[in-house]
From TrEMBL, chain A:
Biological source species: Sitophilus oryzae (Rice weevil)
GO cellular component annotations of the record: ribonucleoprotein complex; ribosome
MF terms in GO: rRNA binding; structural constituent of ribosome
Classification via PANTHER family: 39S RIBOSOMAL PROTEIN L20 (PTHR10986)
SUPFAM superfamilies, per database record: Ribosomal protein L20 (SSF74731)
Family listed: Belongs to the bacterial ribosomal protein bL20 family.
Ribonucleoprotein is among the record's keywords: yes
Protein name: Large ribosomal subunit protein bL20m
Cytoplasm in keyword set: no
Gene from which this protein is expressed: LOC115886441
InterPro entries reported for this sequence: Ribosomal_bL20 (IPR005813), Ribosomal_protein_bL20_C (IPR035566)
Sorted UniProt keywords: Ribonucleoprotein, Ribosomal protein
GO biological process: translation
From TrEMBL, chain B:
Source species taxonomy: Eukaryota, Metazoa, Ecdysozoa, Arthropoda, Hexapoda
Molecular-function GO terms, alphabetical: mRNA binding; structural constituent of ribosome
Keyword rRNA-binding appears in the UniProt entry: no
Domain of life per record: Eukaryota
Keyword hit for Iron: no
Protein name per Swiss-Prot or TrEMBL: 39S ribosomal protein L13, mitochondrial
Classification via InterPro entries: Ribosomal_uL13 (IPR005822), Ribosomal_uL13_bac-type (IPR005823), Ribosomal_uL13_sf (IPR036899)
Species assigned in the record: Sitophilus oryzae
HAMAP family hit by this protein: Ribosomal_uL13
Family per similarity comment: Belongs to the universal ribosomal protein uL13 family.
Keywords carried by this UniProt record: Ribonucleoprotein, Ribosomal protein
One Gene Ontology CC term in the entry: mitochondrial large ribosomal subunit
One GO BP: negative regulation of translation
A Pfam family the protein falls into: Ribosomal_L13
């Protein structure tokens, strides 16, 4: 294509108009009303939707993390141990599980989670982290710390 | 699905009924505790869109204890919607009118205002005394531990126990206790 003036050069941009608009309409397909049919309105809402999507990618991670946290706290409450003591004790016992794994264990593998809380309680007692109720229940568990002490 | 799995499913999602004795308890601290049970936050299967909240029966709400001078200072606002329809009721006055109201409002206000809040409140049953209808009481399977133990008042001890209680000193005969 030969452009005789700069004005014509500016006007002819990108791919064919139909395909360019079609790309936007595909993104606007699930909108309601004229937002999905009229290009000049659709493009505004697609831009906004894409901005929300960018924010949402971060928010989703934060929300999931909060949900896992809530679930682990619930699991800790069932077994009568404080969340912070639980996490600190696991860390000291070299059990490096993240929130996602712990939350899955609390919901789907309750016996495994109970074993983890028992280990955490033993470690908390050995290191003097916090007062643990019903200490006799974790007498059968031995951690590295309790071996060193006795 | 095997029978075991099916029963496990029922047991996981069954609504549990808890009972809580509000005698001499701070209603605002209690609200923070009880809302967890009402919303189901105390279960590892919790999800905001998962309807897993439990029922809570509160007894003896007439005997709650507000901290400090809250009975005299805390005001509850109500507006009828008409001009000049605003009214402020002090906590002691509200408690005299309805002994369940302070606890109910404390729990309602402790939760976030969303569409689920009204339905969550429907799972809360407050009674000013220990007279709970039998059809509610027979569901109860768990007691929530009180936030603080209820101390026994001096006038509830009999004279014998007070006399024999160990003490450090005897006041002199002519000592005036102010």
């Amino acid at each position: 294509m030969v452009f005789t003036t700069a004005v014509n050069f500016v006007r002819s941009r990108g791919p064919d108009e139909f395909w360019r608009k079609r790309r936007i309409f595909k993104l606007a397909a699930h909108f309601v009303g004229r937002k999905r049919n009229c290009y000049s309105i659709a493009i505004r809402y697609v831009h906004r939707a894409l901005r929300y999507a960018t924010k949402g990618r971060i928010l989703k991670k934060i929300d999931m993390r909060n949900l896992w946290q809530t679930r682990i706290v619930a699991g800790c409450m069932e077994h009568d141990i404080d969340y912070n003591v639980f996490r600190e004790s696991l860390y000291r016992s070299d059990i490096l599980l993240d929130r996602k794994t712990l939350a899955n264990l609390a919901a789907w593998e309750p016996y495994t989670f109970k074993a983890l809380t028992d280990i955490a309680k033993r470690r908390a007692i050995d290191d003097g982290l916090a007062s643990i109720n019903n200490q006799h229940e974790v007498d059968r568990i031995i951690t590295k710390g309790s071996l060193v002490k006795t | 699905m095997s029978t075991l799995k099916r029963v496990q499913q029922w047991a996981t999602f069954a609504r549990i009924w808890h009972i809580y004795d509000a005698t001499w308890q701070n209603p605002f601290k209690s609200a923070e505790l009880l809302k967890k049970f009402l919303m189901g936050v105390h279960k590892p299967i919790y999800h905001p869109m998962n309807d897993c909240g439990d029922h809570v029966v509160i007894i003896n709400s007439a005997d709650i204890a507000l901290p400090g001078d809250e009975w005299k200072k805390r005001a509850y606002f109500h507006h009828t919607g008409y001009p000049g329809g605003a009214s402020w009721t002090l906590a002691w006055d509200l408690h005299r009118k309805d002994a369940t109201m302070i606890l109910k409002k404390a729990i309602y206000n402790s939760m976030d205002g969303n569409l689920q809040r009204r339905y969550t409140m429907q799972r809360l049953h407050i009674f000013p005394d220990a007279n709970v209808p039998k059809h509610l009481l027979e569901n109860v399977s768990n007691q929530i531990r009180q936030l603080r133990p209820v101390p026994k008042r001096l006038d509830k001890y009999n004279l014998e126990e007070v006399k024999t209680f160990p003490k450090l000193i005897d006041y002199p005969k002519d000592y005036i206790i102010r």
